[in-house]
Write a structure and sequence with these properties.
Strand content: 15-25%
Distance between the termini: 21 Å
Number of helices: 9
Number of strands: 10
Shape: elongated
Largest sheet: 4 strands, antiparallel
Helix content: 40-55%
Strand order of the largest sheet: 5-4-6-7
Length: about 325
Amino acid sequence: MVIVYAILIFCLLIFVHEFGHFITAKAVGIKVNEFSLGMGPLLFKFKKGDTEYSLRALPIGGYCKMEGEDEESADSAAFNNKPIPAKMLVVIAGSVMNLLLAIVILAIVFISIGIPNTTIKEISPDLPAGKAGLMAGDTIVQIEDKKIQEWSEILEAIGNSEKETLTIIADRDGTIIPFEVDVAIEGERRVIGIQPDSTKNPVKALVLGTKSTFEMGVEMIKMIGQLISGKVSADALTGPVGIVYIVGDTARMGWIYLAQLTAFISLNLAIVNMLPFPALDGGRALFLIIRIFTGKTISDTTEGTIHFVGLLLLFGLMIYVTFQDIGRFLL
């Protein structure tokens, strides 16, 4: 089942990425010769219009092969004959789709588990909130001089305060009541002994999904910067084998955690693909920007060769990381 989960995740992420290229290419009038899910030996194919749709044996990749993408073509619908804005849209569309997928997955997670709100669902009777008189159903509207609108603000107000007793104002059935609540220490956390109620609001879930995706993205970019600067060793990289191992561990924890991991990998794919390296979408975008200033100084064939070399280097990196993963996870 671990292998099945991993294959499903890989196929979903790759399909969404390549579908982004595909649907955008079709939208701007670029001819797509083949849309493939998977790499290697052909399992199944059919043709509709100008495009051949195929399924291949190895679920480790996929591609959207456009006319004139890495070579000269006289076809007016070829990638190389379209204006730069149209080509740029096609190039970045894959990463945009992976970004959107991460947001949607996290939004679904938030809807499923519920979004904590400021209404108290449970009180621990032996902790300060219960002793002070707060009850389940009370809605916290203010802590000290800070107005409260989100559950996270309650955690921040309690955790960041240095006072031993806090003034907490709650709404109980329309009546505003102040409470003097002591703060207890559990481990390193400051707590008062309350648990939040939750709502399943699609709009809030989408907002939280977007916020969480942005925060993850910032951390990923920082990590990439540390890899480039040498502050973090390349040994920290994980490839397909490592991902399968991590998927197995995560799947045992439940589908919520597996969904969060899928969102994380999707966002990682979006960011890494936009790095300005040949063969990656970011490398293609860089060449498009260069061509704004140089025109056809670099021919389509020459650019295709550069991307091919970049692809070989990426395969070399994947092989290195794969052997590293085998030693780390399997031996």
